[in-house]
Amino acid sequence: MHMASHLATDRGKTLLRVPGWRWPLAPVVALPLALFAFALSHAPAALAGTPWEATIRWLPALGLSLQLRLDSLSLVFTLLVTGIGTLVMAYSIPYMQGEYGLVRYYASLTLFMLAMTGLVVAGNLLLLFVCWELTSISSYLLIGFRHEEVESQEAALQALLITGAGGLAMLAGVVLIGQVYGGFDLGVILAEPARLRAHPWYGWALGLILAGAFTKSAQFPFHFWLPEAMVAPTPVSAYLHSATMVKAGIYLLARLAPLLGGTRAWQATLLTVGGLTMLLGAWQALRQHDLKAILAYTTISSLGTMVVLLGLGTAGAAQAALVTLIAHALYKGALFLVAGAIDHETGTRDVRLLGGLWVHGPTLGLVAALATLSMAGLPPTLGFVAKELGYGATLGWSAQAVAAGGLALVLLAANACNVALAVVLGYRVFFGEAGGPWPRKPHGASWLLVLPGLLLAAASWLAGLLPRYLDGAVAEAVGHVLPGAHPAHLALWHGWSLPLGLSVATLGSGAALYALWTRRPPAPRGEPRWSALAAYRWLVH
Questions:
Q1: Which residue from 173, 227, 221, 182 is spatially nearest to 201, judged by alpha carbons?
Q2: Measured between alpha carbons, how far is residue 15 from residues 18, 21, 329 in Å?
Q3: Is residue 520 part of a domain?
Q4: 80: three-class secondary structure by DSSP
Q5: Those residues with Cβ within 8 angstroms of residue 173's Cβ, 6 or more apart along the chain or in another chain
Q6: Cα 275 to Cα 497: distance, rounded to the nearest angstrom
Q7: Is the Cβ–Cβ distance between 249 and 135 less than 8 Å?
Q8: Helices H / strands E in the chain, number of each
Q9: Are the CB atoms for 331 and 371 separated by under 8 Å?
Q10: CB atoms < 10 A from the CB of 72, how many?
Q11: Residue 381, Cβ density class (10 Å: 0-12 exposed, 13-18 middle, ≥19 buried)
């Protein structure tokens, strides 16, 4: 208590702001690194089907307890949350140096990390919900970190209202499920999915749970809060709004797929909402000129892709969804950190002004190159493996060639936009000509602004080169999404095939889109009169 009160004082704030910022590195990263090591140490047991479990008595009078379970699906998410959390904490030290309120910042970031970890290891639906809401609250605190700015206040409130409303809907769904099963133990609930599917409340439970997942993972028409949240400090955007928090909805869909999936309502809703989100995010990303806005909209598109893949309901699609999630967390987390370093050094994120940054920061350019090649889906990156799996899953989804081919073409269109924007981020910004003066002259980014992104980008390449090391974890996790499913082994090369042809077509289409983009780069546009964001502002104001 004495330590906490000391850190909350102005003296504590000064300690975190003294020159020579390297000293706080160990205490700042200690907790996420310890949790990462803990999860990694229990990985063999989780992959062997004997996950670590713990039960802590909470409210015995009500029969409630804290049930924690680290199975293979939880393991994948826990390693991402704690591993990327460690790197973002380290990155924050030089990036946030000199900011006021650093104790509040690190406390909020730690709260989020703990809540997100609790969410993915919860063995009880009520505990999952509590952690779900804690991620929304900590996100509100972090988006509104610079609370003296009106833009930050509005974006924080918007994110809280959208995700909070979805959370209330989810709570209602959780209560309905609890009434059907007489409790909230996930192990008991997932062992008897037929009981809910045969119950009259199934449709209500499905709709309410999906509302929670869709709002958290920025699905259409709730997607608009995510780009607005980019007013947050860049480490927050990299961690919460790209790599982890927005994946909470994907985790919920994957975890409850054995319970809620396998019906026409599930498949139709996920394919429709995910497909619209995938295309809308990709199209809107092409219209942006701010680095973080581009990354936000491409994140929305990727989240839509994951929802579509989970909606297909096949082992290959579930495998593709999980590999896409891992690949996206690695390359997009790296790119957000690159965007933050660029802004930190030049004072701008406008791609129309940026160019020739390779001369000022070749190591940062290397990170961007590695990450954007994975984003574009070039071999031998994990992004390439994920893209091939996605095409294979969509082509094999339906016996009707028209339906399967049409869905594959929709995926190709979204992926082509990703390719075009990867060229913008990795080539134009570092090797193109600058379009105007920058507010600041680059003086060379600190190594701690570069190293975290480099590790994430390198991990995407290593996982692509050696996918067999991911194979066991992903296959076991797929078994929790679709019990009894046995996906094909992960591999970088599957031979000459139609998915490979679609990958080549994606690169060609993306190159053509980039050529069009260079002829007519994005210009500032007014807000559309009819949009989800306009509707929100009309309702709130």
A1: 173
A2: 6, 9, 32
A3: yes
A4: helix
A5: 204, 205, 206, 207, 208, 209, 211, 212
A6: 24
A7: no
A8: 25, 2
A9: yes
A10: 22
A11: buried
Q: Please indicate, yes or no, if residue 107 is contained in any of the structural domains.
A: no
CB contact at 8 A, 102 and 20: no
**Axis-axis angle for helices 248-260, 468-481 (nearest 10):** 50
Distance between CA 330 and CA 453 in Å, rounded?
9
What Cα–Cα distance (Å) separates residue 231 from each residue in 137, 221, 431, 473? 16, 21, 27, 35
CB 387 within 8 Å of CB 377: yes
Q: Is residue 376 one of the residues assigned to a domain?
A: yes
- C-alpha 291/C-alpha 278 separation (Å) is 19
198: Cβ contacts below 8 Å, ≥ 6 apart: none
Strand partners, 348: none
Q: Is 265 exposed, middle or buried (0-12, 13-18, 19+ CB in 10 A)?
A: middle
Kindly give, in sequence order, each residue whose CB lies less than 8 Å from that of residue 201, ignoring residues fewer than 6 positions away. Answer: 176, 179, 180
Residue type, 332: K
Residue 433 lies in a domain: yes
For residue 319, give Cα distances in angstroms to 175, 324, 389, 538. 30, 8, 8, 41
Please give the tally of structural domains in the chain: 1
Alpha helices in 43-71 (DSSP H): 43-47
Q: Tell me which residue of 153, 170, 172 sits closest to 119, measured CA to CA.
A: 170
> Closest by alpha carbon to 237, among 280, 285, 288, 296?
296
Query: What is the domain range of residue 345?
Result: 291-541
- In this structure, the number of other CB atoms found within 10 A of the CB of residue 30 comes to 12
Instruction: Extract the tokens encoding 18.
Output: 């003294």
pLDDT values of the chain reduced to their tens digit, one per residue, 541 residues: 343 334 333 444 444 443 444 446 677 889 999 999 999 999 999 999 899 999 888 776 665 678 999 999 999 999 999 999 999 999 999 898 888 888 899 999 999 999 999 999 999 999 999 999 999 999 999 999 988 888 889 999 999 999 999 999 999 999 999 999 988 999 999 999 999 999 999 999 999 999 999 999 999 999 999 999 999 999 999 998 877 889 999 999 999 999 999 899 999 999 999 999 999 999 999 999 999 999 999 999 999 999 999 999 999 999 999 999 999 999 999 999 999 999 988 888 988 889 888 888 899 999 999 999 999 999 999 999 999 999 999 998 765 667 778 899 999 999 999 999 999 999 999 998 887 788 777 777 788 899 999 999 999 999 999 999 999 999 999 999 999 888 888 988 878 889 899 999 999 999 999 998 888 766 655 556 667 776 766 676 6
Question: In terms of Cα–Cα distance, which of 175, 193, 173 is closest to 184?
Answer: 175
Peptide bond into 499 cis (omega under 30): no
